[in-house]
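U., I forgot to send this yesterday:
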Amino acid sequence: MDIEQRKYVRFLPQDNTFAALRKGFEKVGKVNDVSIKGLAFSYLSETVENGPDPYSYQVDIFLLENKCHLSNVPCKIVYDAPDPTNGKNYSIKMYRCGLLFKELTKIQSELLESFINKHTTGIL
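Result:
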């Protein structure tokens, strides 16, 4: 049995929760889990990703029904790798991207906390 190494509790978001990485919105996908310090999301891509990069980004987190939209959340990519559960014989592959939130404003922190309280379905 693996012991969880993370410092912060991860939560399962509602099914209609998505993330869009603002660097040209090249990576948009379904959020897999979220915490007060980051999130992981899955997206489709034809290109091979090179893993994490040192650059800073901003991410938008939103629900399809427009119940909630966190905009321009500063972050950095911690990992970006092919999803091992995805088939290997397809030209378009599923990737999983992990983001670490950088320093948030007070308003962003409050909105993120509210999002976790109102729009998640349980602890991962």
